[in-house]
Amino acid sequence: MNLKTMFGIGLVSVGVAFAQDASESATTAPSMSEQQLQQQEEQAAASESLTAPVSFVKPDIPKESKRSSFNAVLHGKSYNRNNNMAAANNMDLLLRYPNLFANRKFFYIEPTNKLGVVSLGSFFTAFDITKATHDENQLGRLTLGYAVPGFGFYVRAGLGRERVSNDDGVFSKTYGGDDWAAAIAKSFLGMNVAADVDWLTTKTETHNDPDRGVETEDRFDSLTVNLSLTNAPTAKNFTWTLGVRFVDFLNETEVDGDVQKPGDPASYWDLSPYIRGGLSVLENENARILIGGAAIVSYRNYDDPLDQYAITAVLQPSMLGEVFVGEEKNFMFYGEVGYDWVAFQYMKNNDTDTSRMMDVMDAVNVSVGFRYQYKDFLAVEMGLGEKLFTGLGNYFQADGTFIDFSAMVRF
Predict the structure, then answer these.
(1) Global pTM value
(2) How many helices (H) and strands (E) does the chain have?
(3) What is the pLDDT of residues 60-72, one digit of tens each?
């Protein structure tokens, strides 16, 4: 059986097991101490806009609370592209923490990113496109998930494979963009913890196993595992996320089981702990300014036949401003800027006995956008931005430029 098929069956089995466990827990009478703890968690979840739909109109909440009229808005992907943890939810965050789909009923469409999401309050599904990172192949992906207050999971698959068997042997192909993924999230003690795994074919793979002659196999894929913990559900002023990411990247060709030469880029495994944070520094009922940042430390070890490793520290400061316009607050404008600074990198190549140290400040992300909401059920958003921003004349050039448009209907 194909290894990715076994992996996909395993993802589905894990999701079903978690769903059954959640169902059994709901039908079993807990002890008094467990009841009290569960009641506290439900109250924390119910009081936070991350896990319950709220009106777009500014609620009557203390000023120091994180849940302001800004955080009551669910945005599309054009908002908060720099992952400021104090900002309102966007679609990327919901897909990172699937328990946030609980009690949300909406239809979301984004033609520019080829994404569509339907949430029914518990069950949700998404359709989108995945693109191979090293060729032009694109494949459709289907996401199926389930969420209740405090718990959620999903499985996702985008399939592109073929197999030919004849008298000469077996030839199989996996298209670039073939993708298997799953995510699970759980709230406890006022925090959210999440884990996700993604297995992506980065460019088209082939495997030729003839009856006579040598066996050749391309291995062009990456396995990414991410764990994170955030205080977002109950944060009042400073919001933080702690996490760690593991990546196993393969880019090589084997002949009879032996790697012939390193690919470009070469195969590696990478371990990256990180911390992200966000803070509201200026805010009233019509406007606010958020500052945020991230610190990422990476250890990357390159596979045979290379004998090389790299240690990198990256800092990502960012700012986000947003403002309501009009008495009904139907219009919102937002803009943000983020900076990628490779503060330190040390690379050692034992094959050539060379080392290199560097720091680079060269990547700025700038974007502006607006949102219009009609009553409490229809909203449209549009965002415009660029990486390595150098002037307004460059906005409509292809390199580094994005234009996002999305629409949402809430029920």
Answers:
(1) 0.78
(2) 3, 21
(3) 333 333 457 899 8
